[in-house]
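[agent] plan:
  1. take the single chain provided in the ticket
  2. run structure prediction with default settings
  3. attach structure tokens to the ticket
  4. add a short note for the reviewer (M.T.)
[agent] executing step 1
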Amino acid sequence: MYEHWHGKPYYSLNAFCKNTYGEKLYKIALNAGLTCPNRDGTLGTEGCIFCHAGGSGDFAVDMKTVPTVAAQLAAGKRLFRDKKTGSRYIAYFQAYTNTYGPVSYLRKIYEDALSEESVRGISIATRPDCLGDDVLTVLVDIKEKFPDKFVWIELGLQTIHEQTAHIIRRGYDIACFDRAVSALHGIAVPVIVHVIIGLPGESPRHIYQTIDYLNRSGIWGVKLQLLHILKGTGLETLYREGAVSVLSKEDYLDILIHCLERLSPETVIHRLTGDGAKNLLLAPLWSLNKKEVLNSLHHEMKIRQTFQGRLKEGGVLT
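[agent] step 2 finished; step 3 output follows
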């Protein structure tokens, strides 16, 4: 429908990068050796129930063998050496909570990444309760120091519903999320929000309410992720006890399409499936074939003649 979407029925990150930077940007996942208030005892020690001991950094470079940001970026770039298009990168601080540490260290790792010539910008995964004034100051400073590069913040919201947030051991309320988004808007840092589809106890209606909330929040990007059952998580125990089930591919695609239809057409879609490491994923195993899932999504959206923002634009949200 939209020419700047480059043929897809939604506004993908790849389309945004091509429109803005003239090329595809490759993401290099980093591990800065940080932890999380949900693991170090500040809020808890077990983490969110879907997060295993690697802190959602399954595809980040191993800091034990590659200890510096510069070395991790170099190792990450080698993984893309056979790619035919694009030669610039997004440094993605992925593992654990990447604003949760001494501000002097945070400043150093962000600047180390931004100083790499081939890095267009950084994306920092964190929690809304780990964005104090000192961290915001660092973000302002690095934006000024590297005016030709971007700084994005990714917030792991997952859901707006407090009952679900308690079940998944998220550790903060929706008011905390709102304050963080407002503060980031105040310093002109784009916000990407993570949402999980298929959380325990949530119906499609609950998920659509979260999507509608994001539209009102004015967030820039979203990651829509299928709930994965990973080994070594709280979800594994519930899954083996039969207390938690996972979505079929058909049900997931149906909910995902409805989410896209509700989302503002200006919201950049950073993820639509999620990646579960093969050695950790218990269910759903169909999600391992990411290419097939995306092809099925595109095919189904074509059959339905639908696209991102269709319901929102038509004013028929229910």
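[agent] step 4 note for reviewer: The first helix runs from residue 13 to 21.
[agent] ticket updated
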